[in-house]
Design brief:
It is a single chain. This protein has a 6-stranded mixed beta sheet, with helices on both faces. The protein is globular, with a radius of gyration of 23 Å. The longest helix is centred in the middle third of the chain and has 16 residues. It is of the alpha/beta class. The C terminus is likely disordered. Helix 3 packs across helix 4 and helix 4 crosses helix 5. It is built from 11 helices and 13 strands.
């Protein structure tokens, strides 16, 4: 299928260390997010897809092209890695010009595309400044500009929101959504569930090099919703609070925080859980200071999906 990114039973080993194992995916156009903690295999999948590393077994096809066909392949693919290194003394504009001319474009075409990409990531006013003077967020933006400047059909983004302030994050998310609507493939890695929820058409969950689950965000969230969710409550009488919640069958597990000033409660019905908690707070028997989901990140989702209390790595 020439409109899809295909991983066909792909494995990658670094000596005796597993990178990914027997991954099979068929990714259509739109925004797909790889979710996983550090060391889960997200970057390995991206490096395999872009030909930076070769699979130990299996086959990869990107819009019908092999990553080994470098010239044609990279005319259709853009990659924004987490690697943060630039030639000494170079400006943002010259960095993009050099990158585009390496694609074989003449100077006039490269000039127009570089200016366009800088405006799209809102770095136009900083184009003539040296990258060495950019903030971390600006350096992230210039790498994104490099990845989109040649109008690729596939955009691979490794943790693209790291280092961005809230306004820049919102602008980047809007740009990703716009590109997705235009029919581009975006493959984005993340370890923050909120980012996945806001921008993704589909999610791929990976841990320890293994594919755990995939599907659109609603399917994955429903699967997560069917599993118990853990909440951390800071209060003055955590044991009393846990006992009250167990009385009405709204907890399946309780665990005191190490400092004795809070309790982790796991519930299978989060809406009813919060309703009951509000009632207890109004009674005044327990002074509740803070309530926060303890399962914000991808590790917790893996625990839901694979039924493990351990941390994914």
């Amino acid at each position: 299928m020439n409109d899809r990114i295909i991983f066909d039973d792909v494995s990658k080993f670094y000596g005796e260390v597993l990178g990914v194992n027997r991954i099979s995916l068929s990714i259509p156009p739109g925004i797909t997010t790889l979710v996983g903690p550090n060391g889960s295999g997200k970057t390995t999948l991206m490096n395999l897809m872009t030909g930076l590393v070769q699979p130990s077994s299996g086959h990869i096809s990107v819009l019908g092209l092999s990553p080994g066909n470098a010239t044609e392949f990279f005319s259709k693919v853009g990659y924004c890695s987490q690697f943060d290194s630039f030639p000494r003394g170079i400006t943002g504009f010259d960095f993009l010009m050099d990158s585009l001319m390496l694609h074989g474009m003449d100077e006039v075409v490269a000039f127009g595309l570089a200016a366009e990409a800088l405006e799209r990531v809102q770095l136009g006013q900083a184009a003539g400044r040296r990258i060495a003077g950019y903030s971390k967020g600006m350096r992230q933006k210039i790498r994104l500009a490099q990845a989109i400047a040649h109008h690729p059909r596939v955009l691979v983004l490794d943790e693209p929101l790291n280092g961005l302030d809230p306004m820049a994050r919102a602008d980047s998310l809007a740009l990703f959504e716009e590109l997705g609507r235009q029919g581009m493939h975006l493959l984005i890695s993340s370890h923050i569930l909120d980012e996945v929820d806001r921008i993704s058409d589909r999610v791929v969950l990976i841990t320890g090099g293994y594919l755990i689950a995939e599907g659109n965000i609603h399917q994955v969230r429903q699967e997560v919703r069917d599993k118990p969710i853990q909440v951390l409550i800071r209060c003055d009488h955590p044991e009393l609070l846990a006992a009250r919640m167990f009385e009405v069958n709204h907890c399946v597990e309780a665990r005191l925080h190490a400092d004795g000033r809070g309790v982790f409660l796991r519930t299978g019905d989060i809406d009813q859980f919060y309703s009951l908690l509000n009632g207890i707070a109004m009674e005044g028997l327990v002074k509740i200071e803070t309530v926060a989901p303890a399962d914000d990140d991808a590790n917790a989702i893996y625990q839901y999906l694979i039924g493990s209390d351990g941390s994914a790595s």
